[in-house]
């Protein structure tokens, strides 16, 4: 069973439909027992960092995710969901993230006339051998919608980067914890391959 964390954030249905398309049986839930009984967990998200953390805490989800990681259940954050895995964000000063991985979320620099939010297709530059990105060609295009990006505390967790005004870490992998700044569920067959790689871990 694949648990999609429900904390009243957007983007639940697109992740759900992509997994159903792959022949999986996802469940949208915020129930502790169901989350901890899952084979895989997905933390989606669209919105503001601070408000999302407030919602997660109101449902007691941070403690559940901490326990899930300790148990070795594969966890994947998507877009804002990936950002929430880290320590903090310039978007919401003073709001602590989940702190499952080390790093901070910072604003994309307004340089060269680039539009922010960064919205559209960009190439992935794979940084290391990755279970999440297995089988993808170098330069694979995926779909982004974001104004903030990750500055990791440790470069070793970075599975892929992309260029948009600066070099941004956009896929991470550390033990049983994974993250994509882009939207695999909106990235066509390439994104479906990433989701399939995850649920086969």
Key structural traits:
201 residues, alpha/beta, Rossmann fold, 3-stranded mixed β-sheet, 13 strands, 30% strand, globular
Describe the structure in your own words.
The protein is built from 6 helices and 13 strands. The chain is α/β, with parallel strands linked by helices and 201 residues long. The chain has one domain: Rossmann fold. The protein has an 8-stranded mixed β-sheet, with helices on both faces. The chain is globular. It starts with a strand and ends with a helix. The model has no long low-confidence stretch (mean pLDDT 95).
Annotated CATH topology: Rossmann fold
Sheet with most strands: 8 strands, mixed
Low-confidence stretches: none
Return the structural class.
alpha/beta
Q: What is the helical fraction, as a range of percent? A: 25-40%
CA distance, first residue to last residue? 13 Å
- In the CATH hierarchy, the architecture is 3-Layer(aba) Sandwich
Strand content: 25-35%
Supply the CATH class: Alpha Beta
């Amino acid at each position: 069973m694949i648990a999609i964390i429900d904390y009243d954030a957007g983007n639940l249905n697109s992740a759900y439909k992509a997994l159903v398309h792959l022949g999986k049986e996802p469940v949208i839930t915020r129930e502790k027992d169901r989350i901890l009984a899952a084979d895989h967990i997905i933390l989606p998200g669209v919105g503001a960092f601070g408000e999302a953390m407030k919602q997660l805490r109101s449902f007691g989800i941070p403690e559940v995710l901490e326990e899930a990681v300790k148990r070795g259940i594969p966890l994947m954050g998507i877009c804002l969901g990936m950002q929430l895995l880290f320590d903090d964000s310039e978007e919401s000063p003073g709001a602590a993230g989940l702190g499952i991985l080390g790093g901070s979320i910072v604003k994309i620099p307004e340089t060269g006339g680039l539009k922010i939010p960064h919205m559209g297709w960009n190439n992935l530059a794979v940084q290391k051998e990755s279970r999440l990105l297995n089988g993808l060609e170098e330069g694979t295009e995926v779909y982004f919608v974001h104004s903030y990006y990750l500055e990791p505390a440790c470069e070793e967790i970075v599975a892929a980067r992309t260029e948009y005004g600066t070099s941004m870490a956009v896929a991470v992998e550390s033990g049983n914890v994974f993250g994509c700044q882009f939207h695999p569920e909106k990235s066509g067959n390439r994104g479906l391959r990433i989701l399939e790689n995850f649920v086969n871990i």
